[in-house]
Specification:
281 residues; 2 domains; mainly alpha
Length: 281
């Protein structure tokens, strides 16, 4: 092999190595960024392990094995459960991101939840059996009206059946974004799980978009996962007494940045509904 050929092969190897590292780092950035929706931070130990994974010294399976051993060795009163959840769910997000399969179905949505939360919740992959509300800061502690626990499956099957009838190849990118915003908003509003709905919805939609052939700027979740959740809240909140209607424009802005590389300003403070604060103060 000549010197030029040798240089060329070395350069190709270095580019492939850097590319692989870059993709892994993006996956971890998204995975850990998504934990911000529940104000969760990773442990220092995971930060060390993920560096090893990015460098190619540990596989994702080995990272998960190391995490399990790390938490098994800890005394119960020493475990920070927020860190534990962040660590395991982040690792599972990275692992799931590398799976090629996707299915537009209720069963796959349940699979995503079970996969992500299998190390954390006993109810991973199970639909909730109770109704609930959640206090939202942008709503001055009011709540979105979530799906009825008795009709979760029917609601999801209806939304997914409508989605299956769409042909995104025949749509303009504006129509694509409006439709994806509506679909993800509907799935999230059902809120089929007791915990982890936003993270599950994000992964489900990301894999759906990739299956449709779209390039997804997952780095957006590193910094804007809280905005993403608040945009889902805003797209589903209404108050007839104050004449407040659902507003999906904030979610559309998020998807414009995600799919088009736009530079819309995404600030959660912009989603605050002032009338709710005026009413209670």
């Amino acid at each position: 092999m000549g010197e030029k050929e040798l240089d060329s092969s070395v350069n190709e190897y270095e580019e492939e190595y850097k590319s692989s590292n870059y993709i892994k780092q993006l996956q971890w950035d998204m995975a850990i960024g998504l934990q911000e929706v529940d104000n969760l931070k990773p442990s220092k130990y995971l930060e060390k392990l993920l560096e090893e994974n990015v460098e190619g010294n540990l596989t994702i399976k080995e990272v998960e094995k190391e995490l399990k051993e790390y938490y098994i060795e800890k005394e119960k009163n020493e475990i920070n459960h927020n860190e534990l959840e962040c660590d395991f769910v982040s690792a599972r997000i990275v692992e799931l991101s590398n799976e090629d399969k996707f299915e537009l179905s209720v069963d796959y949505l349940k699979y995503v939840h079970k996969f992500l939360f299998q190390d954390v919740y006993e109810f991973a992959g199970e639909f909730r059996k109770i109704d609930f509300s959640k206090h939202e800061k942008i709503l001055n502690n009011d709540s979105v009206a979530y799906g009825d626990c008795n009709t979760l499956i029917e609601s999801l099957e209806y939304d997914i059946s409508l989605e299956k009838e769409k042909n995104y190849k025949e749509m303009s990118i504006v129509e694509v974004i409006n439709n994806i915003a509506k679909f993800s908003s509907n799935i999230w509003q059902v809120h089929p799980f007791r915990e982890g709905n936003t993270r599950t919805t994000a992964l489900f939609i990301e894999k759906y978009l990739i299956s449709l052939g779209y390039n997804v700027d997952t780095n957006l979740f590193k910094y804007k996962s809280v905005y993403f959740r608040n945009a889902l809240v805003r797209s589903n909140y209404f108050n007839n007494y104050l004449n407040i209607k659902e507003d999906s424009s904030y979610l559309v802005k998020f998807y414009e940045n995600l799919l088009l590389g736009k530079n819309n300003n995404l600030h959660s403070k912009d989603l605050i509904i002032e009338e709710l604060f005026d009413k209670k103060n």
